[in-house]
Design goal:
HTH_MarR-typ; Arc Repressor Mutant, subunit A; ArsR-like_HTH; three-stranded antiparallel beta sheet; 2 domains; about 180 residues; DNA binding; mainly alpha; MarR family transcriptional regulator
Length: about 180
């Protein structure tokens, strides 16, 4: 059986993120791959709001909020309320986060080199395929595509019975059970 698209994507992400995590560990860094988009956004503009990081990194605000919370626990970033707007929060690197940057940059350069090598081995570069897939899904979301595909399928005549469970018929369901006779009479 051929694995589905979701299974393949999860497996691909496990292969990529697992290898990158190993590189950070071997480098002695307490760092997760998911921190990288936030770190890069902060390198470009610091301090930054969660909204700006999400926009710059191309990820959702909830994802940034969750990632920033993890990074605060690791001591890599600090968060303070925005002076003019208490609903906004300013995120900035801590000294520990800043000290880590040269080693992270070396890891990122090695990762970029490995990604370029992988792209060169494929008939169509993975980075280009992913870029095109993301653009296509932003134009017409996957949920819309699923709904359209479902609408093209024939409508089943009746619900399928559950395998392994017996559905009682009307007489069986309403029949009274007899009480057992006492023994010895």
């Amino acid at each position: 059986m051929k694995p589905g698209l979701g299974t393949q994507l999860r497996h691909l992400l496990e292969l990529l993120d697992g290898a990158v995590s190993d590189v950070y560990e071997k480098e002695g860094l307490a760092y997760r791959p998911r921190y990288t988009p936030v770190m890069r956004a902060l390198i470009a503009r610091e301090p930054s709001t969660v909204s700006h990081i999400a926009e710059a990194a191309g990820i959702t605000q909830p994802a940034v909020t969750q990632t920033v919370a993890l990074m605060v626990k690791e001591g890599l970033v600090s968060v303070r309320p925005e002076p003019g707007d208490k609903r906004q929060r300013r995120v900035q690197l801590t000294d520990a986060g800043r000290e880590m940057l040269p080693r992270l940059q070396a890891c990122w350069n090695a990762t970029a080199g490995a990604a370029a090598e992988l792209d060169a081995e494929l008939p169509t570069p993975l980075s280009l395929t992913l870029e095109k897939a993301i653009a296509a899904l932003e134009t017409r979301p996957f949920g819309v595509r699923i709904a359209e595909a479902r609408a093209r399928l024939p409508v089943p005549a009746a619900p399928m019975p559950t395998v392994g469970k017996k559905t009682p018929t009307k007489p069986e369901a309403t029949r009274r059970r007899s009480t057992p006779k006492p023994k010895g009479r």
